Amino acid sequence: MPNGVLAKSLIHKSMGQENPKQDQIFQESSPPKRSLRQAIEVISSLISYSLPIKVFAVKWQLIRNKLEELNSSLIAIEDCDSCQNPIVSGMMSAVLASARDCYDLARRCVDLSYSGKLLMQSDLDAMVAKFDRHVRNLSGIFTAGILSQGFAIVVSRPGVNACKDDVRFYVRDLLTRIKIGDLEMKRHALVNLYDVVVEDEKYVKIIVEVDDIVNILVSLLDSMEMELQQDAVKVVAVISGFDSYRSILIGAGIIGPLIRVLESGSEISKEGAARSLQKLTKNSDNAWSVSAYGGVTALLKICASADSTAELISPACGVLRNLAGVDEIKRFMIEEGAVSTFIKLARSKDEGVQISSIEFLQNIASGDESVRQLVVKEGGIRALVRVFDPKIARSSKSREMALRAIENLCFSSASSISVLMSYGFMDQLLFFLRNGDVSAQELALKAAFRLSGTSEETKKAMGDAGFMSEFVKFLDAKSFEVREMAAVALTSLVSVPKNRKKFVQDDRNVGFLLQLLDQEETNSGSKKLLISILLSLTSCNSGRKQIASSGYLKNIEKLAEAEVSDAKRLVRKLSTNRFRSMLNGIWHS
């Protein structure tokens, strides 16, 4: 049967014009149940009938939205014993009368038989208002407690391969329960909603498409019922994890309610709100909204409070880290004592808090010398060195973050490096070079490589500490990157006369370099680096003597003939002065 005929037939039946067969269908049902079922059928048919209408498209979409909302409420009533209530029964007559009027308007729009556009627009606006009033009236009845969990029929969750319509129906059912159920029903629906969005992204997509559900979740964040607030926050935290849906949450005005949860919600609600804000503030455009609602102050208060849990502090740190990219907000944080607060947090025993606080300190000091100096002044270096200390039990992730922060905050300043050394940082770094696992050794090598490129005093200190022998060990590593860093760092250290003398005191060092040189392919990157180190060693008499008296001179000679970088210079160095007679016959150019 075509939609128009079906809708017209159902409306006629609802007005008391049923045929005898129809009477038989409903003869075992009570009149309230019958009128409710008719109302649901009429509304559903009316929605379908209005879909092809081309004129006044925006108006008809508004009407359909209200019809769908009304239909969800009617289905919820049918699932309970509430249809027996005389108030509900009386409302069905009004709903059916409005449906009859709406059908008449729809028919005239389909046939283009309306008398004037302005008049039809006015009639359609009135129809939207009618259906809105029905929805609000039903909502008022439900709020009064007519609908309860004990009488509700639970709609089963669709299977894994369910179609989109089944998923949408399930979500709409949950929405209806959240909107009009009692406290128990609302909570049960929110828990079910959380379960599905955690497990399946398609439910998140449906949620943001279904009218009102995001707005209702946002409104529940301000609920006086803490349990509802907690459940709503959990759902919001999941949705905010998807890049494509964050703008919808922002558009629904979620920032303000989340800040209010941080200020006065339960501990569980605060944790969820902080996680949501951390995801939402990945876009710096939202930073000012958080600031405008007092979020920066609320977050700093959480981080400074001894009563805050690690589960709350960690995401709160994350939000502030995201906000630190806005200079005005960063200045406000500094004025409020954020630096000292986060240095204290860096000493926390909780890994998440440690990492988040260290990341914050790096972000806030990045590219800002005055803030970097403030971090140093407030004891930031000592706190970071303590996290990196191998004698204290820490996670590898915490140590990695501490080392990176030390590099970024200290290696550009000679005075900061001096402070580092006074706290025993050199010994710590050397420990991980010698005893760390592969990843720890590589991180330590990268840091030592950077450190070797700083001041002359630092190079001397590294030479005295024993770094040169450790760099030699990495020269035959499988990774070219590791070999290159070790060679460049060693070259830098032996450029200092004191270190050269110390290096050649052990005959094995020079011998090992020459052995590696003999193994490398001609013109390889590693060979060039080894020659560079040997060239530096020729500035030392003992070094020249060890190289010249070794059995690898022919190899060096061949490299010079092959035009390998710096090989000619090395031969010249070895061929001069008092070693000329020793090197008689060695290649000259």
From TrEMBL:
Residues 37-146 form the DUF7032 domain. ARM repeats lie at residues 294-338, 337-380. Residues 172-431 form the U-box domain. Pfam families: ARM_PUB, DUF7032. SUPFAM superfamilies: ARM repeat (SSF48371). Keywords: Repeat. InterPro entries: ARM-like, ARM-type_fold, ARM_PUB, Armadillo, DUF7032. SMART domains: ARM. This is Vacuolar protein 8. The lineage of its organism: Eukaryota, Viridiplantae, Streptophyta, Embryophyta, Tracheophyta.
